[in-house]
Amino acid sequence: MEPSPTNPPVIELRSIAYALPNGQPLLHDLNLQVHRGETLVLLGRSGSGKTTTLKLINRLLTPSAGEVRVNGAPTAESNVIRLRRSIGYVIQDVGLFPHFTVERNIGLVPRIDGWPPDRIHARVQELLQLVELDSTIASRYPHQLSGGQRQRVGVARALAADPAILLMDEPFGAVDVITRDQLQREFLALQQRLNKTVVFVTHDLREALRLGSRIALMEAGRLVTVLPPHDFLHSTDSLAAAYVRAFGEGLDSAANRGTS
Amino acid sequence: MNVLHFFLQHHEEILELTLEHLWLVGISTLLAVLVGIPLGIVSAHWPVWNKPVLGTANVIQTVPSLALFGFLLPVPWIGARADRLAILALTLYALLPVIRNTYTGIRGVDPSVVEAGRGMGLTDGQLLLQVQLPLAVSVILSGVRVAVVVSVGLATIAAAIGAGGLGEFIFRGLAMVNNELILAGAIPAAILALSADFGLGWLERRLQPR
Fold it and tell me: Which of A18, B107, B134, B175 is most buried per CB count within 10 Å?
């Protein structure tokens, strides 16, 4: 979807710079637009600035220069709590609350938002089904779950208040290969149904090709290039080409040919 | 046998002094918890407060107890009555373990859990009450347990300034070179300390998050 005055980007980063409190710069002159319903993958090595970029969107970090806009409004001027509740957030370590059952974990934001208990309960059941978990899991504690189950609960929790935007920081990075493959497949199916605007961080090119509608390659705090998966594979950009080479043969079949 | 005989003979006085002892320890622990937990929360939340708060509590801890009683004597209202003075001194000593464990407990919460909470849009207050404090509660309680056990021992010294408690027996026994009197103070004090340690330890394990 091309940006136009009637169809503004859902997320927009304008000339962003970010430096640590000690002055060390992490991001330079970053410009990026994410459109409704697409899965934009931030791809790059560790330390390239992917996670930092992601955290600028829900204002876990504030840029030292430039502007972040969500749904057209500068995040600096919006209520940060409201902003974060309107954006689902999934991280690699999941960060489930260990003292809450699965049900309470998923239902936390709805509960804080004052939903009536029966509505929360119904929503939790609906979400468990959506992420393909058995409803009996609702009364368990996080330490009683497998890694894959925990990650699914994390996704369900992020979706609880039905946010239009989803930020995912290497969500499938800490699970085994087979579980990851399954989670990726489910993510694609889920995305087809829900059509969220997703920003997805990964260092795995294969994952990026499979899940992304566009891939934004980052290196040393800069945005190198933004391309759809298929174009990325055949990019003449030297860094993108190096990435493709490093991941070897057989990537063509991995590329997302989805229409989103 | 002599000791047992003594205990039976003086059981009323022993009970009275034990209750007095409990009162000194109980009130001072309560005050230390009411002051110490908020201070621990403040120093965990605003790192600038960490050093001054914990530093002060540390310094107080190093003042010998008898000297602390002496220092507090000229304080108006407090110095006017021995029990007030003893309670304040015990409170000051109990602060350090309570503050330190509150700080450590909150800081020890898995960072990914805190980040997830923040990212979900919890306010600082919600994060504290729903996530950080519940997860830190067993660590905080173990600080309270240390404070209580130390207080039970320290409170015996409060008898030196006439605040009562089981120390009365001990000081009397020392003056009269009478072992039975010393034991009449020491044994109930030891039992108090052990039961507090056991009871709070049990509670701590019950509240331990998985």
Answer: A18
- Neighbouring CB atoms inside 10 A of A181's CB total 15
Predicted local confidence at residue A260, as pLDDT: 45
* CA dist., res. A150 & res. A203, Å (int): 21
CA distance B105 to chain A (A): 14
Q: Give the closest-approach CA distance of B100 to chain A in angstroms.
A: 22
Rounded Cα distance between B118 and B132, Å, is 12
* Partners of residue A159 in chain B, C-beta under 8 Å: none
- The Cα–Cα gap between A93 and A188 comes to 21
Nearest-CA neighbor of A169 among A257, A95, A66? A95
CA atoms within 13 A on the CB side of B168: 14
**B112: helix, strand or coil:** helix
Cα(B177)–Cα(A215) distance, integer angstroms = 86
d(CA A82, CA A39): 23
Instruction: Label residue B163 exposed, middle or buried (CB < 10 Å: 0-12, 13-18, 19+).
Output: buried
- A94 contacts on B by Cβ (under 8 Å): 112, 116
ipTM value > 0.90: no
Distance CA A252, CA A256 (A): 9
Among residues B207, B184, B193, B122, which one has the least CA distance to residue A112?
A: B122
The pTM of this model reads 0.87
- Give A196 to chain B, closest Cα distance, Å: 17
Name the residue in chain A with its Cα closest to that of B112.
A95
A137 with A148: CB under 8 angstroms? no
Asked whether A234 and A195 are in contact (CB, 8 A), the reply is no
Name the residue among B114, B118, B121 with its Cβ closest to that of A109.
B121
B135 vs A contacts (CB less than 8 Å):
97-99
CA B97 to chain A, closest CA, distance in angstroms equals 24
* Low-confidence stretches of chain B (pLDDT beneath 70): 1, 209-210
A174 touches chain B (CB under 8 A): no
Helix (H) or strand (E) holding A166: strand A165-169
CB contact under 8 A, A89 and B122: no
Percent of chain A scoring above 70 in pLDDT: 93
Residues of chain B with C-beta less than 8 angstroms from the C-beta of A150: none
Half-sphere exposure of A260 (CA within 13 A, CB side): 24
Residue B77 three-state SS: coil
